[in-house]
Amino acid sequence: xxxxxxxxxxxxxxxxxxxxxxxxxxxxxxxxxxxxxxxxxxxxxxxxxxxxxxxxxxxxxxxxxxxxxxxxxxxxxxxxxxxxxxxxxxxxxxxxxxxxxxxxxxxxxxxxxxxxxxxxxxxxxxxxxxxxxxxxxxxxxxxxxxxxxxxxxxxxxxxxxxxxxxxxxxxxxxxxxxxxxxxxxxxxxxxxxxxxxxxxxxxxxxxxxxxxxxxxxxxxxxxxxxxxxxxxxxxxxxxxxxxxxxx
Amino acid sequence: xxxxxxxxxxxxxxxxxxxxxxxxxxxxxxxxxxxxxxxxxxxxxxxxxxxxxxxxxxxxxxxxxxxxxxxxxxxxxxxxxxxxxxxxxxxxxxxxxxxxxxxxxxxxxxxxxxxxxxxxxxxxxxxxxxxxxxxxxxxxxxxxxxxxxxxxxxxxxxxxxxxxxxxxxxxxxxxxxxxxxxxxxxxxxxxxxxxxxxxxxxxxxxxxxxxxxxxxxxxxxxxxxxxxxxxxxxxxxxxxxxxxxxx
DNA sequence: ACAAAAGTGTTGTTTGTACACCCATGC
DNA sequence: GCATGGGTGTACAAACAACACTTTTGT
Lengths: 247, 247
What we know:
2 copies of one chain form a homodimer. Chain A is α+β, with helices and mostly antiparallel strands.
Protein backbone atom coordinates (compact mmCIF):
# COMPACT_ATOMS: atom_id res chain seq x y z
CA UNK A 1 0.00 0.00 0.00
CA UNK A 2 1.18 3.47 -0.77
CA UNK A 3 1.39 6.14 1.88
CA UNK A 4 -1.65 8.38 1.99
CA UNK A 5 -1.21 11.97 0.95
CA UNK A 6 -3.63 14.80 0.69
CA UNK A 7 -2.30 15.89 -2.67
CA UNK A 8 -2.39 13.40 -5.49
CA UNK A 9 1.09 14.17 -6.73
CA UNK A 10 2.61 13.39 -3.36
CA UNK A 11 2.08 9.72 -3.82
CA UNK A 12 1.89 9.49 -7.58
CA UNK A 13 4.99 11.35 -8.63
CA UNK A 14 7.13 8.28 -8.27
CA UNK A 15 4.73 6.03 -10.11
CA UNK A 16 5.68 4.98 -13.59
CA UNK A 17 2.23 3.67 -14.39
CA UNK A 18 0.25 6.85 -13.91
CA UNK A 19 1.23 10.28 -15.15
CA UNK A 20 -0.26 13.72 -15.44
CA UNK A 21 -2.54 14.58 -18.30
CA UNK A 22 -3.73 17.79 -19.92
CA UNK A 23 -7.34 18.68 -20.18
CA UNK A 24 -8.95 20.33 -23.17
CA UNK A 25 -12.45 20.94 -24.48
CA UNK A 26 -13.37 20.68 -28.14
CA UNK A 27 -16.57 22.00 -29.61
CA UNK A 28 -18.77 20.53 -32.31
CA UNK A 29 -20.76 23.63 -33.22
CA UNK A 30 -23.61 23.06 -35.63
CA UNK A 31 -26.00 25.34 -37.43
CA UNK A 32 -28.37 25.10 -40.38
CA UNK A 33 -27.62 27.52 -43.18
CA UNK A 34 -28.54 27.44 -46.86
CA UNK A 35 -30.41 24.17 -46.39
CA UNK A 36 -27.25 22.48 -45.18
CA UNK A 37 -26.01 21.33 -41.81
CA UNK A 38 -22.82 23.25 -41.15
CA UNK A 39 -20.08 22.78 -38.59
CA UNK A 40 -17.73 25.47 -37.34
CA UNK A 41 -14.08 24.71 -37.89
CA UNK A 42 -10.88 26.65 -37.31
CA UNK A 43 -7.63 26.53 -39.18
CA UNK A 44 -5.00 25.56 -36.66
CA UNK A 45 -2.34 28.23 -36.09
CA UNK A 46 -0.05 26.02 -34.02
CA UNK A 47 1.68 22.68 -34.21
CA UNK A 48 0.71 19.94 -34.27
CA UNK A 49 -1.50 19.82 -37.36
CA UNK A 50 -0.58 23.42 -38.20
CA UNK A 51 -2.80 24.79 -40.95
CA UNK A 52 -5.24 21.91 -40.83
CA UNK A 53 -8.92 22.40 -40.04
CA UNK A 54 -10.03 21.34 -36.58
CA UNK A 55 -12.88 21.73 -34.18
CA UNK A 56 -12.42 24.83 -32.03
CA UNK A 57 -11.20 24.10 -28.53
CA UNK A 58 -8.40 24.55 -26.08
CA UNK A 59 -7.06 23.96 -22.62
CA UNK A 60 -9.33 24.09 -19.63
CA UNK A 61 -8.00 26.53 -17.08
CA UNK A 62 -7.53 25.91 -13.40
CA UNK A 63 -10.61 26.71 -11.36
CA UNK A 64 -12.81 26.45 -14.41
CA UNK A 65 -15.54 23.90 -14.96
CA UNK A 66 -15.73 22.07 -18.28
CA UNK A 67 -18.86 23.98 -19.16
CA UNK A 68 -17.20 27.30 -18.40
CA UNK A 69 -14.20 26.29 -20.45
CA UNK A 70 -16.42 25.39 -23.37
CA UNK A 71 -18.17 28.75 -23.19
CA UNK A 72 -14.83 30.58 -23.05
CA UNK A 73 -13.43 28.71 -26.04
CA UNK A 74 -16.64 29.36 -27.90
CA UNK A 75 -16.05 33.08 -27.42
CA UNK A 76 -12.30 33.08 -27.95
CA UNK A 77 -12.03 30.77 -30.92
CA UNK A 78 -15.32 31.29 -32.67
CA UNK A 79 -16.39 34.73 -31.47
CA UNK A 80 -19.74 33.33 -30.41
CA UNK A 81 -21.70 34.28 -27.32
CA UNK A 82 -22.68 30.90 -25.97
CA UNK A 83 -25.45 32.11 -23.71
CA UNK A 84 -27.96 31.86 -26.53
CA UNK A 85 -27.19 28.38 -27.74
CA UNK A 86 -27.62 24.87 -26.52
CA UNK A 87 -24.47 23.35 -25.06
CA UNK A 88 -24.12 19.81 -23.83
CA UNK A 89 -21.36 17.34 -23.19
CA UNK A 90 -20.76 14.57 -25.68
CA UNK A 91 -18.01 12.56 -24.06
CA UNK A 92 -14.34 12.24 -23.28
CA UNK A 93 -11.63 11.17 -25.70
CA UNK A 94 -8.35 10.16 -24.19
CA UNK A 95 -6.73 7.42 -26.25
CA UNK A 96 -2.99 7.48 -25.75
CA UNK A 97 -1.56 8.72 -29.00
CA UNK A 98 -4.54 10.82 -30.00
CA UNK A 99 -2.32 13.86 -29.44
CA UNK A 100 1.41 13.68 -30.26
CA UNK A 101 2.20 16.03 -27.37
CA UNK A 102 1.33 13.49 -24.71
CA UNK A 103 -1.70 12.42 -22.73
CA UNK A 104 -4.27 15.03 -23.66
CA UNK A 105 -7.79 14.32 -22.53
CA UNK A 106 -10.40 16.20 -24.47
CA UNK A 107 -14.00 16.54 -23.52
CA UNK A 108 -16.15 17.11 -26.57
CA UNK A 109 -19.11 19.45 -26.37
CA UNK A 110 -22.05 19.73 -28.69
CA UNK A 111 -23.27 23.25 -29.47
CA UNK A 112 -26.40 23.95 -31.48
CA UNK A 113 -27.32 27.42 -32.62
CA UNK A 114 -29.36 29.39 -35.11
CA UNK A 115 -27.72 30.72 -38.26
CA UNK A 116 -25.52 33.20 -36.49
CA UNK A 117 -25.53 36.85 -37.48
CA UNK A 118 -22.19 37.18 -35.67
CA UNK A 119 -19.45 37.12 -38.28
CA UNK A 120 -17.34 34.16 -37.31
CA UNK A 121 -13.59 34.55 -37.11
CA UNK A 122 -12.31 34.39 -33.59
CA UNK A 123 -10.18 36.77 -31.63
CA UNK A 124 -7.36 34.26 -31.96
CA UNK A 125 -4.97 34.06 -34.84
CA UNK A 126 -6.96 31.04 -35.94
CA UNK A 127 -9.42 31.58 -38.72
CA UNK A 128 -12.90 30.21 -38.20
CA UNK A 129 -15.26 29.15 -40.98
CA UNK A 130 -18.44 27.20 -41.54
CA UNK A 131 -18.09 23.94 -43.42
CA UNK A 132 -20.90 21.68 -44.64
CA UNK A 133 -20.82 18.50 -42.60
CA UNK A 134 -21.22 16.58 -45.85
CA UNK A 135 -17.70 17.66 -46.79
CA UNK A 136 -16.35 16.12 -43.61
CA UNK A 137 -18.51 13.01 -43.81
CA UNK A 138 -17.46 12.09 -47.34
CA UNK A 139 -13.80 12.73 -46.60
CA UNK A 140 -13.41 15.81 -48.82
CA UNK A 141 -12.28 17.68 -45.71
CA UNK A 142 -9.70 16.16 -43.39
CA UNK A 143 -9.53 17.17 -39.76
CA UNK A 144 -6.73 17.33 -37.20
CA UNK A 145 -6.34 14.83 -34.33
CA UNK A 146 -9.26 12.42 -33.97
CA UNK A 147 -11.69 15.21 -34.71
CA UNK A 148 -13.28 13.42 -37.60
CA UNK A 149 -14.28 10.51 -35.37
CA UNK A 150 -15.57 12.92 -32.74
CA UNK A 151 -17.58 14.78 -35.33
CA UNK A 152 -19.10 11.57 -36.61
CA UNK A 153 -20.31 10.72 -33.13
CA UNK A 154 -21.57 14.26 -32.67
CA UNK A 155 -23.59 13.99 -35.84
CA UNK A 156 -25.20 10.74 -34.80
CA UNK A 157 -26.05 12.34 -31.50
CA UNK A 158 -27.65 15.36 -33.17
CA UNK A 159 -29.76 13.20 -35.46
CA UNK A 160 -31.00 11.13 -32.54
CA UNK A 161 -31.53 14.14 -30.32
CA UNK A 162 -33.96 15.57 -32.85
CA UNK A 163 -36.14 12.53 -32.29
CA UNK A 164 -36.33 12.57 -28.54
CA UNK A 165 -35.74 16.17 -27.55
CA UNK A 166 -36.65 19.70 -28.58
CA UNK A 167 -33.08 20.16 -29.86
CA UNK A 168 -34.36 21.29 -33.25
CA UNK A 169 -35.58 24.54 -31.69
CA UNK A 170 -31.98 25.38 -30.84
CA UNK A 171 -31.32 25.76 -34.56
CA UNK A 172 -34.10 28.32 -34.91
CA UNK A 173 -34.12 31.89 -33.70
CA UNK A 174 -36.10 33.17 -30.74
CA UNK A 175 -39.31 32.77 -32.73
CA UNK A 176 -39.89 30.61 -35.77
CA UNK A 177 -42.56 29.18 -38.00
CA UNK A 178 -43.38 25.51 -38.14
CA UNK A 179 -41.90 25.45 -41.62
CA UNK A 180 -38.62 26.74 -40.22
CA UNK A 181 -38.67 23.93 -37.69
CA UNK A 182 -39.57 21.37 -40.31
CA UNK A 183 -36.70 22.53 -42.49
CA UNK A 184 -34.29 21.83 -39.65
CA UNK A 185 -35.54 18.26 -39.45
CA UNK A 186 -35.43 17.80 -43.20
CA UNK A 187 -31.91 19.11 -43.54
CA UNK A 188 -30.49 17.15 -40.63
CA UNK A 189 -32.30 13.92 -41.36
CA UNK A 190 -31.92 14.33 -45.11
CA UNK A 191 -35.53 13.41 -45.78
CA UNK A 192 -38.76 15.16 -46.69
CA UNK A 193 -41.53 15.41 -44.13
CA UNK A 194 -45.21 15.93 -44.77
CA UNK A 195 -45.99 19.50 -43.69
CA UNK A 196 -49.46 18.81 -42.37
CA UNK A 197 -48.56 15.70 -40.42
CA UNK A 198 -45.46 17.39 -39.06
CA UNK A 199 -47.57 20.29 -37.83
CA UNK A 200 -49.95 18.00 -36.02
CA UNK A 201 -47.22 15.99 -34.39
CA UNK A 202 -45.38 19.06 -33.13
CA UNK A 203 -48.52 20.72 -31.81
CA UNK A 204 -49.68 17.51 -30.14
CA UNK A 205 -46.37 17.05 -28.36
CA UNK A 206 -46.94 18.86 -25.11
CA UNK A 207 -44.51 21.65 -24.36
CA UNK A 208 -42.58 21.39 -27.61
CA UNK A 209 -43.56 24.82 -28.99
CA UNK A 210 -45.63 27.74 -27.76
CA UNK A 211 -47.59 30.11 -30.01
CA UNK A 212 -46.49 33.72 -29.72
CA UNK A 213 -49.59 35.20 -31.37
CA UNK A 214 -47.32 36.97 -33.83
CA UNK A 215 -47.24 36.27 -37.53
CA UNK A 216 -44.57 36.21 -40.16
CA UNK A 217 -45.22 37.26 -43.75
CA UNK A 218 -43.47 35.12 -46.30
CA UNK A 219 -42.43 36.69 -49.65
CA UNK A 220 -45.45 35.04 -51.15
CA UNK A 221 -48.22 33.02 -49.59
CA UNK A 222 -50.31 33.00 -46.50
CA UNK A 223 -48.82 34.44 -43.30
CA UNK A 224 -47.49 31.85 -40.87
CA UNK A 225 -47.95 31.77 -37.12
CA UNK A 226 -44.81 32.27 -35.07
CA UNK A 227 -43.86 30.02 -32.19
CA UNK A 228 -41.19 29.94 -29.54
CA UNK A 229 -39.68 27.02 -27.62
CA UNK A 230 -41.95 25.37 -25.09
CA UNK A 231 -40.82 24.37 -21.62
CA UNK A 232 -40.35 20.70 -22.47
CA UNK A 233 -36.97 19.34 -23.52
CA UNK A 234 -37.80 15.65 -23.69
CA UNK A 235 -40.47 15.04 -26.30
CA UNK A 236 -43.40 12.89 -25.35
CA UNK A 237 -44.22 11.33 -27.71
CA UNK A 238 -40.97 11.54 -29.70
CA UNK A 239 -40.80 12.32 -33.41
CA UNK A 240 -39.45 9.09 -34.81
CA UNK A 241 -37.97 9.34 -38.26
CA UNK A 242 -38.80 6.85 -40.97
CA UNK A 243 -36.65 3.78 -41.58
CA UNK A 244 -35.05 4.94 -44.83
CA UNK A 245 -32.79 7.78 -43.74
CA UNK A 246 -31.13 9.05 -46.93
CA UNK A 247 -33.54 9.90 -49.76
CA UNK B 1 1.97 33.95 -28.89
CA UNK B 2 3.72 31.22 -27.04
CA UNK B 3 6.62 29.35 -28.54
CA UNK B 4 5.65 26.09 -30.15
CA UNK B 5 6.84 22.92 -28.54
CA UNK B 6 6.29 19.32 -29.42
CA UNK B 7 5.57 18.33 -25.84
CA UNK B 8 2.72 20.07 -24.14
CA UNK B 9 4.57 20.64 -20.91
CA UNK B 10 7.35 22.52 -22.65
CA UNK B 11 5.19 25.52 -23.22
CA UNK B 12 2.66 25.07 -20.48
CA UNK B 13 4.85 24.52 -17.46
CA UNK B 14 5.23 28.23 -16.88
CA UNK B 15 1.56 28.98 -17.33
CA UNK B 16 -0.41 29.83 -14.24
CA UNK B 17 -3.75 29.42 -15.98
CA UNK B 18 -3.42 25.81 -17.07
CA UNK B 19 -2.07 22.98 -14.99
CA UNK B 20 -1.77 19.23 -15.12
CA UNK B 21 -4.66 17.04 -14.16
CA UNK B 22 -5.08 13.43 -13.15
CA UNK B 23 -7.28 11.07 -15.01
CA UNK B 24 -9.48 8.45 -13.41
CA UNK B 25 -12.36 6.23 -14.42
CA UNK B 26 -15.31 5.49 -12.18
CA UNK B 27 -17.79 2.73 -12.78
CA UNK B 28 -21.52 2.68 -12.25
CA UNK B 29 -22.10 -1.07 -12.27
CA UNK B 30 -25.71 -2.15 -12.20
CA UNK B 31 -27.43 -5.46 -11.91
CA UNK B 32 -30.91 -6.71 -11.10
CA UNK B 33 -31.11 -8.97 -8.10
CA UNK B 34 -33.97 -9.86 -5.79
CA UNK B 35 -36.35 -7.68 -7.81
CA UNK B 36 -34.21 -4.64 -7.11
CA UNK B 37 -31.82 -2.57 -9.15
CA UNK B 38 -28.47 -2.81 -7.42
CA UNK B 39 -25.27 -0.85 -7.82
CA UNK B 40 -21.82 -2.05 -6.95
CA UNK B 41 -20.01 0.10 -4.39
CA UNK B 42 -16.70 -0.17 -2.59
CA UNK B 43 -15.72 1.03 0.82
CA UNK B 44 -12.83 3.38 0.34
CA UNK B 45 -9.59 2.23 1.90
CA UNK B 46 -7.72 5.48 1.35
CA UNK B 47 -8.08 9.16 2.06
CA UNK B 48 -9.95 11.20 1.08
CA UNK B 49 -13.35 9.89 2.12
CA UNK B 50 -11.73 6.94 3.90
CA UNK B 51 -14.31 4.35 4.87
CA UNK B 52 -17.09 5.91 2.83
CA UNK B 53 -18.85 4.03 0.06
CA UNK B 54 -17.94 5.05 -3.47
CA UNK B 55 -18.22 3.84 -7.02
CA UNK B 56 -15.27 1.61 -7.93
CA UNK B 57 -12.63 3.31 -10.01
CA UNK B 58 -9.08 4.47 -10.14
CA UNK B 59 -6.33 6.10 -12.10
CA UNK B 60 -5.96 5.50 -15.80
CA UNK B 61 -2.49 4.27 -16.60
CA UNK B 62 -0.19 5.58 -19.28
CA UNK B 63 -0.70 3.86 -22.61
CA UNK B 64 -4.13 2.69 -21.63
CA UNK B 65 -7.38 3.74 -23.25
CA UNK B 66 -10.30 4.78 -21.08
CA UNK B 67 -12.12 1.60 -22.00
CA UNK B 68 -9.13 -0.54 -21.07
CA UNK B 69 -8.80 1.33 -17.79
CA UNK B 70 -12.44 0.74 -17.03
CA UNK B 71 -12.07 -2.98 -17.69
CA UNK B 72 -8.98 -3.16 -15.50
CA UNK B 73 -10.66 -1.37 -12.61
CA UNK B 74 -13.66 -3.60 -13.01
CA UNK B 75 -11.40 -6.59 -12.43
CA UNK B 76 -9.22 -5.07 -9.74
CA UNK B 77 -11.81 -3.34 -7.61
CA UNK B 78 -14.87 -5.47 -8.19
CA UNK B 79 -13.39 -8.80 -9.23
CA UNK B 80 -15.58 -8.85 -12.31
CA UNK B 81 -14.61 -10.05 -15.75
CA UNK B 82 -15.87 -7.24 -17.94
CA UNK B 83 -15.83 -9.17 -21.18
CA UNK B 84 -19.33 -10.46 -20.54
CA UNK B 85 -21.04 -7.21 -19.69
CA UNK B 86 -22.06 -4.07 -21.46
CA UNK B 87 -19.71 -1.15 -20.92
CA UNK B 88 -20.24 2.35 -22.21
CA UNK B 89 -19.05 5.83 -21.42
CA UNK B 90 -21.35 8.16 -19.54
CA UNK B 91 -19.40 11.39 -19.44
CA UNK B 92 -16.59 13.36 -17.88
CA UNK B 93 -16.71 15.07 -14.51
CA UNK B 94 -14.03 17.62 -13.83
CA UNK B 95 -15.35 20.43 -11.67
CA UNK B 96 -12.51 22.04 -9.76
CA UNK B 97 -13.02 21.06 -6.17
CA UNK B 98 -14.74 17.76 -6.88
CA UNK B 99 -11.62 16.07 -5.49
CA UNK B 100 -9.71 17.68 -2.61
CA UNK B 101 -6.42 16.38 -4.01
CA UNK B 102 -6.44 18.70 -7.01
CA UNK B 103 -7.73 18.65 -10.55
CA UNK B 104 -8.90 15.11 -11.01
CA UNK B 105 -10.87 14.40 -14.15
CA UNK B 106 -13.00 11.33 -13.92
CA UNK B 107 -14.68 9.62 -16.81
CA UNK B 108 -17.73 7.74 -15.66
CA UNK B 109 -18.60 4.42 -17.26
CA UNK B 110 -21.85 2.55 -17.18
CA UNK B 111 -21.65 -1.21 -16.78
CA UNK B 112 -24.67 -3.49 -17.00
CA UNK B 113 -24.50 -7.14 -16.13
CA UNK B 114 -26.54 -10.15 -15.12
CA UNK B 115 -26.78 -11.12 -11.49
CA UNK B 116 -23.19 -12.16 -11.12
CA UNK B 117 -22.23 -15.56 -9.80
CA UNK B 118 -18.76 -14.15 -9.11
CA UNK B 119 -18.55 -13.34 -5.43
CA UNK B 120 -17.81 -9.67 -5.38
CA UNK B 121 -15.06 -8.37 -3.19
CA UNK B 122 -12.09 -7.18 -5.15
CA UNK B 123 -8.48 -8.09 -5.01
CA UNK B 124 -7.84 -4.71 -3.41
CA UNK B 125 -8.09 -3.96 0.25
CA UNK B 126 -11.36 -2.24 -0.57
CA UNK B 127 -14.50 -4.19 0.16
CA UNK B 128 -17.07 -4.35 -2.57
CA UNK B 129 -20.80 -4.84 -2.02
CA UNK B 130 -24.10 -4.54 -3.83
CA UNK B 131 -26.40 -1.76 -2.67
CA UNK B 132 -29.97 -1.13 -3.78
CA UNK B 133 -30.03 2.07 -5.82
CA UNK B 134 -33.08 3.09 -3.85
CA UNK B 135 -30.85 3.50 -0.79
CA UNK B 136 -28.67 5.93 -2.68
CA UNK B 137 -31.55 7.75 -4.32
CA UNK B 138 -33.39 8.47 -1.10
CA UNK B 139 -30.22 9.56 0.69
CA UNK B 140 -30.00 6.65 3.11
CA UNK B 141 -26.56 5.94 1.67
CA UNK B 142 -24.07 8.75 1.22
CA UNK B 143 -21.30 8.47 -1.34
CA UNK B 144 -17.81 9.92 -1.61
CA UNK B 145 -16.86 12.74 -4.00
CA UNK B 146 -19.62 13.71 -6.42
CA UNK B 147 -20.53 10.07 -6.88
CA UNK B 148 -24.11 10.56 -5.91
CA UNK B 149 -24.64 13.07 -8.71
CA UNK B 150 -22.89 10.78 -11.17
CA UNK B 151 -25.02 7.86 -10.08
CA UNK B 152 -28.18 9.88 -10.53
CA UNK B 153 -27.23 10.65 -14.10
CA UNK B 154 -26.28 7.04 -14.67
CA UNK B 155 -29.69 5.92 -13.48
CA UNK B 156 -31.50 8.30 -15.79
CA UNK B 157 -29.37 7.00 -18.61
CA UNK B 158 -30.18 3.37 -17.82
CA UNK B 159 -33.90 4.05 -17.66
CA UNK B 160 -33.84 5.82 -21.01
CA UNK B 161 -31.55 3.24 -22.59
CA UNK B 162 -34.11 0.54 -21.88
CA UNK B 163 -36.52 2.40 -24.12
CA UNK B 164 -34.34 2.85 -27.15
CA UNK B 165 -31.81 0.05 -26.98
CA UNK B 166 -31.55 -3.63 -26.16
CA UNK B 167 -29.75 -2.72 -22.93
CA UNK B 168 -32.19 -4.80 -20.90
CA UNK B 169 -30.68 -7.96 -22.34
CA UNK B 170 -27.39 -7.03 -20.67
CA UNK B 171 -29.05 -7.67 -17.31
CA UNK B 172 -30.03 -11.18 -18.33
CA UNK B 173 -27.80 -14.17 -18.71
CA UNK B 174 -26.77 -15.72 -22.01
CA UNK B 175 -30.29 -17.05 -22.47
CA UNK B 176 -33.45 -15.82 -20.80
CA UNK B 177 -37.20 -16.04 -20.90
CA UNK B 178 -39.40 -13.14 -21.87
CA UNK B 179 -40.55 -12.97 -18.28
CA UNK B 180 -36.94 -12.51 -17.17
CA UNK B 181 -36.65 -9.65 -19.63
CA UNK B 182 -39.93 -8.14 -18.54
CA UNK B 183 -38.85 -8.28 -14.91
CA UNK B 184 -35.80 -6.19 -15.78
CA UNK B 185 -38.05 -3.52 -17.27
CA UNK B 186 -40.44 -3.65 -14.35
CA UNK B 187 -37.74 -3.35 -11.74
CA UNK B 188 -35.85 -0.54 -13.45
CA UNK B 189 -38.89 1.46 -14.49
CA UNK B 190 -40.75 0.69 -11.30
CA UNK B 191 -43.96 -0.15 -13.12
CA UNK B 192 -45.93 -3.21 -14.07
CA UNK B 193 -46.12 -4.25 -17.71
CA UNK B 194 -48.75 -6.40 -19.35
CA UNK B 195 -47.07 -9.76 -20.08
CA UNK B 196 -48.91 -10.45 -23.30
CA UNK B 197 -48.43 -7.01 -24.80
CA UNK B 198 -44.81 -6.96 -23.71
CA UNK B 199 -44.23 -10.25 -25.47
CA UNK B 200 -45.70 -8.97 -28.72
CA UNK B 201 -43.74 -5.74 -28.64
CA UNK B 202 -40.45 -7.48 -28.02
CA UNK B 203 -41.03 -10.12 -30.70
CA UNK B 204 -42.16 -7.49 -33.21
CA UNK B 205 -39.04 -5.40 -32.65
CA UNK B 206 -36.69 -6.76 -35.27
CA UNK B 207 -33.42 -8.10 -33.93
CA UNK B 208 -34.23 -7.54 -30.25
CA UNK B 209 -34.25 -11.21 -29.23
CA UNK B 210 -33.66 -14.51 -30.97
CA UNK B 211 -35.33 -17.81 -30.03
CA UNK B 212 -32.88 -20.52 -29.04
CA UNK B 213 -35.32 -23.41 -29.38
CA UNK B 214 -34.52 -24.39 -25.80
CA UNK B 215 -37.02 -24.30 -22.98
CA UNK B 216 -36.85 -23.49 -19.33
CA UNK B 217 -39.01 -25.26 -16.77
CA UNK B 218 -40.30 -23.03 -14.03
CA UNK B 219 -40.92 -24.51 -10.55
CA UNK B 220 -44.57 -24.51 -11.44
CA UNK B 221 -46.35 -23.69 -14.67
CA UNK B 222 -45.89 -24.10 -18.35
CA UNK B 223 -42.34 -24.23 -19.73
CA UNK B 224 -41.09 -20.97 -21.19
CA UNK B 225 -39.17 -20.53 -24.42
CA UNK B 226 -35.60 -19.30 -24.06
CA UNK B 227 -34.18 -16.44 -26.08
CA UNK B 228 -30.81 -14.85 -26.55
CA UNK B 229 -29.88 -11.31 -27.58
CA UNK B 230 -30.56 -10.41 -31.19
CA UNK B 231 -28.12 -8.53 -33.38
CA UNK B 232 -29.87 -5.18 -33.03
CA UNK B 233 -28.83 -2.69 -30.37
CA UNK B 234 -31.05 0.23 -31.32
CA UNK B 235 -34.69 -0.76 -31.02
CA UNK B 236 -36.98 0.01 -33.87
CA UNK B 237 -39.63 0.70 -32.79
CA UNK B 238 -38.59 1.61 -29.23
CA UNK B 239 -40.41 0.44 -26.11
CA UNK B 240 -41.73 3.69 -24.72
CA UNK B 241 -42.74 3.58 -21.09
CA UNK B 242 -46.01 5.03 -19.92
CA UNK B 243 -46.24 8.59 -18.66
CA UNK B 244 -46.61 7.78 -14.98
CA UNK B 245 -43.20 6.39 -13.99
CA UNK B 246 -43.66 5.32 -10.38
CA UNK B 247 -47.17 3.89 -10.10
C1' DA C 1 -57.13 35.51 -61.36
C1' DC C 2 -53.09 33.09 -60.16
C1' DA C 3 -49.23 31.32 -57.56
C1' DA C 4 -47.50 30.09 -53.29
C1' DA C 5 -47.38 28.75 -48.81
C1' DA C 6 -50.28 27.96 -44.39
C1' DG C 7 -53.43 25.35 -42.33
C1' DT C 8 -57.67 21.81 -41.95
C1' DG C 9 -60.26 17.51 -42.97
C1' DT C 10 -60.80 12.81 -44.21
C1' DT C 11 -59.87 8.07 -44.77
C1' DG C 12 -57.65 3.72 -44.47
C1' DT C 13 -54.03 1.40 -42.01
C1' DT C 14 -51.22 0.47 -38.31
C1' DT C 15 -50.20 0.28 -33.58
C1' DG C 16 -51.41 0.14 -28.65
C1' DT C 17 -54.19 -1.47 -24.69
C1' DA C 18 -57.02 -4.07 -21.95
C1' DC C 19 -58.50 -8.29 -20.95
C1' DA C 20 -60.57 -12.82 -21.88
C1' DC C 21 -59.10 -17.17 -22.94
C1' DC C 22 -56.38 -21.46 -23.86
C1' DC C 23 -52.02 -24.35 -22.99
C1' DA C 24 -48.51 -27.07 -20.57
C1' DT C 25 -46.48 -28.38 -16.63
C1' DG C 26 -45.97 -30.04 -11.27
C1' DC C 27 -48.39 -31.58 -7.51
C1' DG D 1 -58.30 -31.76 -10.83
C1' DC D 2 -56.08 -27.51 -9.55
C1' DA D 3 -52.72 -23.92 -9.21
C1' DT D 4 -49.28 -21.46 -11.74
C1' DG D 5 -47.21 -19.15 -15.13
C1' DG D 6 -46.65 -19.25 -20.57
C1' DG D 7 -48.70 -17.94 -24.63
C1' DT D 8 -52.73 -16.55 -28.12
C1' DG D 9 -56.96 -14.01 -29.66
C1' DT D 10 -59.84 -10.21 -29.88
C1' DA D 11 -62.01 -5.85 -29.82
C1' DC D 12 -61.87 -1.17 -29.03
C1' DA D 13 -59.18 3.09 -29.13
C1' DA D 14 -55.44 5.97 -30.36
C1' DA D 15 -51.86 7.24 -33.52
C1' DC D 16 -49.96 7.51 -38.23
C1' DA D 17 -49.61 8.39 -43.23
C1' DA D 18 -51.22 9.92 -47.50
C1' DC D 19 -53.45 13.28 -49.80
C1' DA D 20 -57.43 16.24 -51.03
C1' DC D 21 -59.02 20.55 -49.86
C1' DT D 22 -59.56 25.34 -48.01
C1' DT D 23 -57.50 29.84 -46.49
C1' DT D 24 -54.73 33.97 -46.83
C1' DT D 25 -51.51 36.62 -48.63
C1' DG D 26 -48.62 39.19 -52.86
C1' DT D 27 -48.52 40.28 -57.64
